[in-house]
Amino acid sequence: MFVLNYLVKGLYSVSKRNVSKLGFVCLRFPVVLVIHCTKFSVIFFCLILTAANAEAQSLSKPVTLIEPTLIDLDTNFNTPVKPLPFDRYFRLRFSIPGKVNVLGFLIVPIDNNGNKDVKKRDYRRFIKSSTVNSRQRKRMKGEVPYHLFKDSSREHAPLNTEFEVYYKDKKSEVILLVPPLEPGRDYRIRLYTNDDKSLDLYYGLNAQLYQVLSMKNSVNLAVMKSLKLGYESIPKTLFRKDDFFQFLSARGCLNDVALKVDTAELKLGRLDGYKPCIEMRFTFSKTALGEEMLATMQPDQYISIISDHVPQSISLPLLVTLASEKGLLDENRDSVNFSEVTDRPQYQISVFLKGSKIKLDQHEAKELSFGDTVIKELVKVTFLGNDPNVVAWQPLEEIEECEKNQFILTNLKTVSTYVQSAPPNPTSPFLNKKSYDLLATTALACPCENAGILKTHERDELIKVLGFLYNPPDQYIPNTLSGKVILTAPYEIKAKNAVSEMENLEKNFVTLNLLEGLVRLSLAKSVDYHVDSNMVGFLNDISLLRNALIKNRDDLRPVILAEADIKKHYIKSLFLASPKDVGAGSTEIFNFMTASKFKIVPDFGFVVISDIPNIKSVNELVPYLGFNVNFRSIDKDIAMRKIQGKHWTYYFSFIVGLTLTSIDIPDKREDLFGNNSLMTGFGFKANNYLKVILGGVFYKTYPINPLVDKKSIGVSAFAGLSVDYELKEIFGGIKSLFK
Fold first, then answer.
1. Among candidates 691, 695, 697, 732, which has minimal Cα distance to 714?
2. Which backbone phi and psi does 684 adopt, to 5 degrees?
3. Contact, 387 vs 298, CB < 8 A?
4. Confidence band, pLDDT 50/70/90 cuts, at residue 119
């Protein structure tokens, strides 16, 4: 407001004597505002609309990867082939050997030594991109304070997930849609792909997981313990691995019981710099328990599960397994009997929860008062069985049925119950010596179109198969018909998954068809009855083998689909990620001519200059021509409102210029250079082309003593508006004045 008042005051004070002077100015600008008063009129010009129409590029967040600039990454040196763009989205393309499944990527600011180097503005951008409203932002700031965000040993989601991957020539071509970066900074490009090893470990739990989830109101203790140990042995990656109880519930809730506890009941309060720590104590009692009884219970009378959140439900098989393994005692310190039960007592399963806060960067806990505990009665059960390995129970009250994630249980069943069927090796060889010799001789004469053997390598493969069928290796037929190995290489490593088995079955199907064609061609050439009889029987064997192979292939297809769904679910829900630094780049422009385009900008405008010696008196309105030097690179092709996380350096610039008309005042001041004077100051961006400027104008001052001839340098304050122009436009306009 001060600047605007200053400008208006200047315009008003010079209007009467400068109207003619301003006439040529008004012709250069699109808007003239005339203010009519009773005694005078003031011509008030405005530069704003000149800049308002200068938004060349509007970069809303792209939906596809077509529009933004494409930058290639030289993977030999892990650097981009040119500086990275700034303040705009761009595509980064590179190749990785092999086939990769990309989950996302991070762009991490680094210093000259390659270490993580984040600023407050990076933190603000992270908070904004991770949340959708002020409440979430407040919670996120509590969970991830700034001092943890800048910790070089930590990475923080969310990952950028806009990318494309193309697999060709045994390489994965990856195209990342990189969000706007700041100019003049170095960045590391970190790609996150599936941690295949950990994913295989998860997938290896499927058989045990299905056995646990599929048992209604019962649990196999040995299987549950094995499943729990297997799960806990999987290392945590960058992103949080679910607690085991949540892992069970997320994949099937057949035996879950709802907790129905609102975290607000724990009265944790604000979590700034802390994370919640919830202890859940589960008890098996013959009577209902109150707060006083719960407060005095010893560790051998409850199961303790600690988490950073309260789950919606808990797995009863897990509670029973933990209680059995611990030898849990009830409220009377009697052992809870899970097997060999004679009188079948009823047990009330309850939970009482207590919350505390733990500093995110330390291990010290801030305990809450005992009054903040919550007690919930979950379900009454009675135990049934006499089997020490399988504990069964009967709920004595209705438990709400749960149907979520039933597709996971269905897929687990498909995978776990799949049984391959294949006949065993024959007790006698498929071929006798004469039949084998005839078939081998016929094959050596191929390629032969009438047998379907068109290539020499097909012929060579068939000769190998004939040898194996004449003298079959151990488990040759079961292994080939199940897809474990191929007919031409029974001693190679067996297939490790259903997809590889399917590939082997397809190859074996083609081989059997070629073998059938060879046998029929040999039969047409044979004149020996015994050979003919043996090969006719061999044709029947080939047909039986092919039918068994087709059955296994058809049975395997739903297994492959189920495996794919399960792995997709694991990837999505567990977010197993393996980081890989694929390169580093800079938004710094080292070429001076190119860099100056973004930092040194010519401008033109009008300023009002204060008088001397009374600085409050304003009586000069003069045009000027100069340059403004931005404190950071500015790409004027991008609208100002599209720039994310603007820093103060984006708005301010340093101004240097010359007045285009004389500011000489007789006996007071004289222009510094002929009819021009030097101006310096600072500018504040209103948009990409318009600035509000403040500063000082330098000139020569007359001495107070008339006997002294030496003039000194004086300075007066100025305020004004300026518009940025391209160099060619300004110099072209000035040049035309001299023609």
1. 697
2. -120, 125
3. no
4. confident
CA atoms within 13 A on the CB side of 356: 13
Count of C-beta atoms within a 10 Å radius of residue 732: 11
Q: Which residue is listed with tokens 């029929």?
A: 520
Alpha-carbon gap, residue 22 to 370, rounded angstroms: 79
Per residue in 601-643, pLDDT (tens digit) is 888 888 888 765 555 555 567 888 888 888 887 777 777 777 7
Element (H, E) at 736: helix 727-737
Calpha distance 97→628 (Å, rounded): 48
Please name the residue that has the structure tokens 């061999």.
538
608 close to 7: Cβ distance less than 8 angstroms: yes
d(CA 62, CA 88): 10
Residues 152-177, buried b or exposed e (16+ Cβ, 10 A)?
Answer: eeebbbebeebbeeeeeeebbebbbb
| Count of helix runs (H) and strand runs (E) in the chain | 20, 26
Q: How far apart are CA 569 and CA 580, in angstroms?
A: 23
The pLDDT value recorded for residue 733 is 46
> What's the residue count for the chain?
739
Q: Which two tokens stand for residue 690?
A: 């318009």
- Report which of 246, 245, 263 is spatially closest to residue 368, judged by C-alpha positions: 263
One-letter identity of residue 501: E
CB contact at 8 A, 339 and 219:
no
Rounded distance between C-alpha atoms, residue 35 and residue 248, angstroms: 76
Q: In whole angstroms, what is the distance from residue 31 CA to residue 44 CA?
A: 9
> Do the Cβ atoms of 95 and 178 come closer than 8 Å?
no
pTM above 0.70, yes or no: no
At a CB cut-off of 8 Å and minimum separation 6, what does 294 contact? Answer: 281, 283, 352, 373, 375
Residue 531 token pair? 């050979």
* CB-count burial class (<10 Å; 0-12, 13-18, 19+) for 712: exposed
